[in-house]
Design a protein that fits this description.
single chain, mainly beta, Porin, eight-stranded antiparallel beta barrel
């Protein structure tokens, strides 16, 4: 009996969602966004490096809670990255003598599932264009994380041992936390294209709240700025 009810739960949720959409209480759409990501380092072991280009795409759902207010959510597949720099370090290949290296650039490239939750404020249409703003929180869960390392001495193998002056062992392939939490704020516009359908475009700032590097001596917050495009159906 329990198994049967459990199997019917997704069907029940789909029916409720369909009814909400038919009643125009939920707006569903697809979106895509190129983004620029970077790290802000606060620990003593690393310095902020350059930015990296990324991309995200996914489903958006806006639940109407007032005349011009919506609760926005959905889920994205997001590719985020950035660079941090170790000014000085020691590189130790197996069965070899340790050698000093300088300006080790660590280029992170991570893939996340992101589930945002935000309040969205939408104006009335002004010349067929509606303006909106959003503010909220995003939960990101790591799907895949990797890093490439390069120094003034050349490319460094991430499987080897690299330590900084504080003798902190850094295994970069495994130094990305599974969870990333961030505050999001955005602005944009919508334009009707027929029926209830409309296109939208906007800019969103995603500000990391917790370190995106596991080692406490490498505290680094990750943020990104994205240009969003989407269609509501």
């Amino acid at each position: 009996m329990y198994k049967s009810n459990k199997n019917l739960l997704p069907v029940f949720i789909l029916i409720l969602l369909s009814n909400a959409v038919m009643a125009q209480k939920v707006l569903l759409g697809l979106k895509a966004a190129p983004l620029m990501g970077w790290y802000k380092c606060t620990g003593s072991a690393v310095k902020t490096g350059g930015s990296s280009v990324g991309f995200s795409y996914g489903l958006m759902a806006d639940f109407k809670i007032g005349e011009r207010y919506y609760l926005g959510t959905g889920f994205d597949i997001a590719y985020m990255g950035g660079k941090v720099v170790l000014p000085t370090a020691v590189y130790t290949p197996p069965s070899s003598i340790s050698v000093p290296v300088t300006n080790v650039q660590i280029n992170y490239s991570n893939q996340y599932i992101q589930v945002p939750l935000s309040l969205k404020f939408r104006t009335k249409e002004i010349g067929h264009i509606a303006y909106w703003a959003q503010f909220g929180y995003a939960n990101s869960f790591l799907l895949h994380g990797k890093a490439s390392l390069q120094s003034d001495n050349g490319i460094i193998d991430t499987k080897k041992i690299l330590t900084n002056s504080a003798d902190v062992k850094l295994n970069y392939n495994y130094e990305v936390p599974m969870y990333r939490g961030s505050m999001i704020i955005g602005l944009g516009i919508e334009y009707p294209i027929g029926g209830n359908s409309r296109i939208y475009s906007g800019i969103k700032f995603d500000n990391g709240l917790f370190s995106s590097v596991k080692d406490k001596k490498m505290d680094a917050l990750h943020s990104n700025l994205s240009l969003n495009f989407g269609v509501y159906f």
